[in-house]
Model the fold of this input.
Amino acid sequence: MEAKEILRQHIARTASLTDEQFEYLFSHFKPLSFKKGQTIISEGDKVETEYFVLSGCLKAFFINDEAKMYILQFAMPTWWTSDFNALYNQTKATINIDCITDAETLCLTNNDREKLCNELHPVEHFFRWRTNRGYLASQKRLLSLMNNDTKKRYEELLALYPELYNLVPKHLIAAYLGVSRETLSRLYNAH
Amino acid sequence: MEAKEILRQHIARTASLTDEQFEYLFSHFKPLSFKKGQTIISEGDKVETEYFVLSGCLKAFFINDEAKMYILQFAMPTWWTSDFNALYNQTKATINIDCITDAETLCLTNNDREKLCNELHPVEHFFRWRTNRGYLASQKRLLSLMNNDTKKRYEELLALYPELYNLVPKHLIAAYLGVSRETLSRLYNAH
DNA sequence: CGCGCGATTGAGTAATTTCAAATCTAGTGG
DNA sequence: CCACTAGATTTGAAATTACTCAATCGCGCG
Done:
């Protein structure tokens, strides 16, 4: 399916735009393709844009002082990603985003999003719902991280994204769950 | 300060409403006061409303099978709280909300919020930003939970809400940080 | 074939939990 | 004013869990 059509259907789920409105909206998006392993945002960068994933898989991650990686999000098709904190607050990036596989995206600048939200009420409605979904998902993950043991979180993740299992290396799954790769390995090999 | 004025200033920080628009918006809010210890939402309840805190302190928490409590949010003045997952998805509450101190709130139903967002573009803008703030805070906490040790998270929490220190019992702080009260006690008594 | 990356396994260590008991504190009634 | 009580906090000790570090295994690719 064509990029434009994917975005159209994605937005249509929460907001009704006329053909003309959608064309106008779409004209602000810029297609960007990336190769496996390519970096999209690095810590310290100025962040101007957010990315809507059309195909492939990105990861948004944080590297701490001891060079340990924590994955905040696997960005799969129809998900949005960026360093939203840096984007909205106009500060330098504190997280990194790169490509687990080849990927196609549509990107939108912070200024254009705000402009479009201001000009078109249905667009603002869409972005409210998008953010809301992210918020609810984040709250759910927070609760899961505190309440569930690693095994349960592992099953939860695979239930949410079955395709991850043979798409990403296990040590990235561990970095998402917040445990060492050894612990994860022992978990699903014990029975 | 009067309830109406608190809400007005809170909203004015991100959206410009005319006096008339604000009066219309405000007419949908209902003042509700609670006593210390009173329950606002219980697991299993039907959730129809969200709450804007004017004074006092609420807690939103989850109780697991082993009767362990995890605190998702301390709701302080000018914060919003509810079981947002249940509210937006029209499902039964999975978390509880009650009062740590006497508290005054303004409450708004899910239907009214959606109606107001639909009728008034600036109101939708406001709620997009409110949700966005919540999302960014949630992401930050997630990262902190994975990356920082308990001591650092404790300091972070007190930096964010200095008033919590002598407002809420320590075991609630522990339930927010995701550690046992014993561990927290040992932490800040060691030197 | 051999390199390199990812995954697994083992052993010892560090941190946190649980359970139990002791201590402290604020508020209540006599 | 004092004794009493409930809730909150602290402390001790054993058990659990995950971590780190190191070594090994497995497999795809040049």
Residues 150 and 179 of chain A are 8 Å apart (CA to CA). The mean pLDDT of chain A is 94.
